[in-house]
Design goal:
Length: about 675
Amino acid sequence: MKILLTILAVLPAILAGDFIPQELSVAQQDSILNAGIEQDENVCTRYRLECENEEQLFRHSSQADWFVIDTMRHTRKALGEGLKLGKVRDAVMSPNGRYVAFAKDNNLYVHKLDFGTEVAVSKETNTDIISGVADWLYEEEFGATTLFAWSPDSKLLAFVRLDETEVPAFAWQNFLNTDYPTADTIHFPKAGHKNAKASVCVYDIVTKAILTMQVSQDDVYFPRIKWYNENTLFVLRVNRDQTKMEVLSCNAKSTVAYPWYHEESKQYFVDYSLFDQWQWLSDGRMIVLSERDGWRQAYLYGNDGIKERVLTPENIDVTALCAVDEANQLLYFQAAPTPSTRQIYAVNIKKGGAPVQITTGEGRHEARFSKDTKRFIDCFQSFTTPNTYTLYSISRVKATNIEVILDNTAVVTEWNTYRLPEPELININGLEAMLLKPQTANPSPLIVMHYSGPQSQRVLNRWRKKFEYALVEAGYAVLIVDPRGSDCKGRAWRNETYMNLGVKEAQDLIMAANEIAKRSDIDGNRMALLGWSYGGYQTLFTMSQKDHPFKAGIAIAPVTDWKLYDTGYTERFMRRPQVNARGYKAASLLNKASDLTGNILIIHGTADDNVHVQHTMQYVEALVQADKQFEMQLYPDDNHFLKKGNHAAHMHNRILNFLNNNL
């Protein structure tokens, strides 16, 4: 009873977000960093944007009531008001501060601030054609919502156009608050099926003409567009298998494009997202982040697209390019000296040499620099320290503390009242892991919590107070482990599971559990697996292996057959079913139902737009036909994150009850 009362105290606090630290937004950090720095006199600062009544669409996207504030006339006008558009999305002001581009439904619009007028850039009546914003796939798997960009002189607006006409649709029912269920439908390209046809266009603000760039090919993605100068647009083009990445230089007037950068692999996928880190220099050169030589390294490229030199060492993954100090020829970057930590470094662009570490403290450092690179804000966190924002000045790669801006001491004080243990970082035969142990004298049952997906990491020295601590309060030891395929250990390690998802991760989870069970404070006869999404898939896959040691498993929103998941993610790591039939068959849970052993709890939301509940339904049918007993929990009309109403609290208590009953 004493333990139960403690759980009832800590679990609601975790679910309520009592231990989520306060953050400084990018805008707040920039305001602090750039105070007193002379602004560009050509930029109009008369207007600013505000939004309210935000409404979530999918994972990243939202629409809201957006307003233009005229600081000279002291007026406030809604975007889209003249066209009676209501809530709009992705409002972006032009560099000169005189236009705002925004989207409504699937069309793109421009608001002219000086005149208070609005014009439709695209005028599509076909709802299967999207201009300027992401479809579901681009948003979920390429992290994009806004697919348009202003030229530096504000005269041109580039955008990606997606035609979903031939993309199959997926529908799910909504059961609540209605006598007859209603249905939601989205275009959802599953592995091997057709994607949206993509093209890149440029709109001229003066002539209102739209030109299509000569970059389109069959089965390609355009996840990023970025202006190089007033007339040159860089387009990132990725082939469908994501084994080739090209940066195309497009003349916005003639529409002609030529390849500026090319990276291709016959062995692995190519990471398109590293393009987000590229740094542009004033003389036209660029600093490129790539893992083409085995580790994520920074390279200096000339304005002709020719590589000049590598800037960062091997055997360490660079995780972000922070800023460039051109006056002193310095590149500031974030890297992982160990997989679980992040530090900030400086390296000389011209001379090279060993990087200099400019941050201290074991944990995770993220840096944002001022425009003149003379100051930066270090956001530091660790197991024991929530987000702490400190302002530094920097000269000759030496950082000097100016002041702590935000330290979240109230969060630490509240957390410490629970007297819960901190994780112990351990290495299990080459796998990164961390262990939380309850304060009990007897050997503890063990819960192995994992995600296990390619390029992911759960073992990080950061502030994260989640459900694992409620499990510890309940008397369970918790092992969090990153199997092969995880991040920040080099490209070869990241691609250990390429084309063959599930197999090596299962081997690693089994090995890690068996090794940790040798400890006297762990009860190896009472162990369980717990995973969500890819982790749910991997839980079921692992418990379908003959030699697994787990007595129970919990799979939340699990993928059960990769042919049912989307193209962008699945084909990145598995290629298409048409070319990797053996890999898809070996990875599917539907033909492994008869091999499943142990007590299983499957949890899913019926309105999951990401991992559709169809995955669970097909797997449940396979279990039934194999005469396998299991437990199941559905949450009506909820999505992949299960946060609707009381669902999260109910789910976590359901998990605790299941573990108590089975371990």
